[in-house]
Design goal:
The chain is mostly helical. The protein contains 20 helices and no strands.
Length: 475
């Protein structure tokens, strides 16, 4: 449902806002997310990895939430100081090409504050196995609110400055919802218990926080540098076109992000009890299931790319290649499963920081060289290269260190099924009504894909779930 709402929201944003207006929203979100990753001082990873050692509801989890809030607030204050020094440069460098960003730059720190606390409260809940609420508020409710304010804006009930204010407000709401949920679950424990943390545990937490700050901060650069560099090199209008195309390209990743949210706490718990075989089993299952879902979404985008472009205003036509290139990159990430989660929660977590630093150099360098040559398609190429490189490195690391090879004959089956499903509609002429064309192509290819994975047992876990849902529907 979140993916469907995201699709509608992206289409509606493209029609209601100009590329420049979409660009300013994209750059505000990117900068705030980048600042927020540094502002938590690595404590998000500490929460996922070490909360199992604090878990004790009767004792308020030994005041873990208190430490999370204090450290996060300290990190945000440091981030604000850095922003104060950067602000003159941000204004000067964007005055010519991104005037709207300069006009609304005052939203950057409030948005960062709510983003960083959403991340920390969400990780606290995920570590306690309440992973759904964060996704529900961010991927579902927030998008409903955005659709509502877009509809009101369509009827000219307020101006663009008011729209921006409401958009930022809606983006901040999930944080308040998480706080309310934590109170409702009676998990708001902010009284520290002295003497619980041993010197050794404190040292391990500080070490993880340090390396996580480096790896997560660098990872944030990888995630958001493309939008920022497109804005710096090409300006806010191209940033708006790239942002809309980026939203379509990342639809493939939605299932993976949901899996990562759920599975991080489980992997940390397995490491605590040294259940390496269980982690290996999860790795195989995640690669298999994510590859199946990724291929289905990929062929859905690939065979309907012209129809998708019909849904967008002509100003966004340049985004077609961006969608296709990003889809290829993110299909690779789906296919490599939970490799990052496994490494980040292992005793080799420092290696993740090293990998990410190398990847930062790859993504910045690729964007720097490719954007001037190929425009926004160059940035998409840089992102795809980065994603493929990073996941291949993690894949070979787990094979070398843990002897974890996650692919089976089912992986080849899925690739073959994907090709058959795609070519089943390849030679069908395009219908004049592109809505009918989307329905017919998607129904034929999607129906064949589901039939073949059920028939060949290519995805045992998904097959079990599909059959269970079919029986429930029939009843």
């Amino acid at each position: 449902m979140g993916a469907g709402l995201g699709f509608l929201t992206t289409i509606w944003l493209a029609h209601q806002l100009s590329p420049a207006e979409n660009g300013v929203i994209g750059i505000l979100i990117s900068f705030s997310a980048l600042f927020a990753q540094f502002a938590n001082l690595g404590f998000t990873a500490v929460t996922i990895r070490f909360f199992p050692y604090f878990r004790n509801k009767e004792k308020g989890h030994h005041g873990f939430l208190f430490y999370a809030i204090i450290i996060t607030m300290a990190g945000f204050i440091l981030c604000w100081i850095v922003y104060a020094f950067m602000k003159p440069w941000l204004i000067e460098s964007n005055m010519a090409k991104s005037k709207l960003f300069v006009d609304y730059i005052f939203y950057l720190m409030p948005l960062t504050l709510f983003t960083v606390f959403f991340n920390i409260f969400d990780s606290y809940l995920r570590a306690g196995f309440s992973s759904v609420i964060g996704s529900f508020t961010k991927d579902f409710l927030q998008r409903i609110f955005i659709l509502i304010i877009l509809t009101l804006y369509f009827f000219n009930l307020f101006s663009f400055p008011v729209f921006i204010f409401l958009y930022i407000t809606v983006t901040c709401l999930p944080t308040l919802m998480l706080v309310a949920f934590i109170f409702r679950q009676k998990e708001w424990h902010v009284k520290p218990i002295r003497g619980f943390m041993s010197k050794e545990l404190r040292k391990e937490m500080m070490s993880l926080a340090f390396y996580s700050l480096l790896s997560v901060g660098a990872g944030a650069i990888i995630l958001y540098v493309d939008m920022i560099m497109v804005n710096q090199i090409l300006g806010q209008e191209k940033t708006g076109v790239y942002r809309i195309a980026f939203q379509f390209g990342t639809i493939i990743l939605i299932p993976a992000r949901s899996i990562y949210r759920i599975i991080s706490g489980i992997v940390a718990e397995h490491y605590k009890h040294n259940k390496i075989e269980e982690i290996y089993k999860l790795y195989i299952q995640s690669c298999n299931s994510q590859l199946a879902i990724g291929i289905l979404l990929f062929i859905g985008i690939w065979m309907n790319i012209d129809n998708i472009m019909h849904l967008l205003p002509s100003a966004y036509a340049e985004g077609k290649n961006v969608i296709l290139i990003l889809s290829i990159g993110y299909l690779t990430e789906m296919a490599t499963g939970i490799n990052q989660v496994i490494i980040s929660n292992s005793r080799h977590f420092r290696w993740e920081a090293y990998f990410v630093f190398i990847t930062v150099a790859v993504t910045v360098g690729a964007n720097y060289f490719l954007i001037p040559i190929y425009g926004i398609s160059g940035s998409a190429m840089a992102t795809a290269i980065t994603v493929i490189f990073a996941n291949c490195v993690r894949l070979f690391f787990l094979m070398k260190v843990y002897k974890m090879q996650p692919y089976t004959f089912n992986s080849l089956k899925l690739i073959g099924i994907g090709l058959l499903s795609y070519f089943s509609v390849f030679f069908i002429p395009a219908f004049s009504n592109f809505y009918i064309d989307i329905v017919i192509r998607s129904s034929i290819a999607g129906g064949l894909f589901l039939f073949l994975i059920l028939k060949t047992e290519a995805t045992p876990e998904l097959n079990k779930k599909i059959r269970k849902n079919i029986k429930m529907y029939i009843k």
